[in-house]
Amino acid sequence: MDSQPGLPRCYRHPETETGISCVRCDRPICPHCMVSASVGFQCPDCVRGGSGTGHAPDANQPRTLAGGRIAADERFVTKIVIAINLMLFVAVQAVGDRLVDDLALIGYAFLPTGELVGVADGEWYRLLTSAFLHQEIPHFLFNMLGLWVIGGIVEPELGRIRYTALILLSGLSGSALAYLLSPQNQFSLGASGIVFGLIGAWVVLARRRRHDMRPVALFVALSLLLTFTRPGISWEAHIGGLVGGALVTYALVHAPKARRSLVQYTACGLVLLLDLGIVLFRSAALA
């Protein structure tokens, strides 16, 4: 008997084979994407365009792996984050070092007079502003490429709200660890903590999807190698973002459906409290 050709692959998840197709557009869809219709199944795009099936809209609303709503633009938040970074980068080029001095993270920071400055002096906003701030073109371009590529993988799996929480908590976790461990008066800036948070999220998602982990592990290993071998890199921000992003994403995609929102909100709150606890501990030690 001749061997049968492989099954078609889902148009939204090319790694997944499926024998189901949308009854409206006939595109192949996997179990994660298919939405019940009066006859057969429809794809998320056709449902979003209006299916007229007569089912309750919320019951048929397609969901991401983490339970978020599937959006038409799967990089919407990623584009906004890149735009914020771009605006700050242009502002730094126009204004100069003065803006960097005002917004960058300063770990273990003292003036020559012994006076505390930065986060230790109550400027907590630096924990987040530093995560969107760049001064050099190569640094900016490298981080924006990472945001675009890895964000394009992670955002569709989480949905906009959960992905936004991941971005903010990854940046904050990177800043918190940098604040805790950085040498005296060392500046820390850049979206690397966010990018490494997305890398941590990608690892969790790949395991959850049971993908081949070898390419992911190789990418993580190379990223860590660059972190610890290139001079002038804030490895603290990278590791903090990586761990924070992985913890948040694990809670988002493994939360039981019956208590999904409660578990997800609680996990994000605990990561936030951990970051704030690190900052308070460090500030108290400097006082």
The CATH architecture of the largest domain would be Up-down Bundle
Helix segment count?
11
CATH superfamily of the largest domain, by name, is Rhomboid-like
Please report the total strand number as a whole number.
Answer: 4
Low-confidence region ranges: 51-59
The main pleated sheet reads as: 2 strands, antiparallel
**What is the average of the pLDDT values?**
85
Radius of gyration from the alpha-carbon trace, in angstroms: 22 Å
CATH class annotation of the largest domain: Mainly Alpha
Kindly name the structural category: mainly alpha
Cα separation of the termini: 79 Å
Q: Which oligomeric state applies?
A: single chain
Beta-strand proportion: under 5%
> What fold name goes in the CATH topology slot of the largest domain?
Rhomboid-like fold
Can you tell me the number of structural domains? 2
Give the neighbour order of strands across the main sheet. Answer: 1-2
Helix content: 55-70%
Shape: elongated
In N-to-C order, the SSE pattern is EEHHHHEHHHEHHHH
Protein name: Rhomboid family intramembrane serine protease
Pfam family, one: Rhomboid
Domain Peptidase S54 rhomboid: 122-253
GO molecular function, one term: serine-type endopeptidase activity
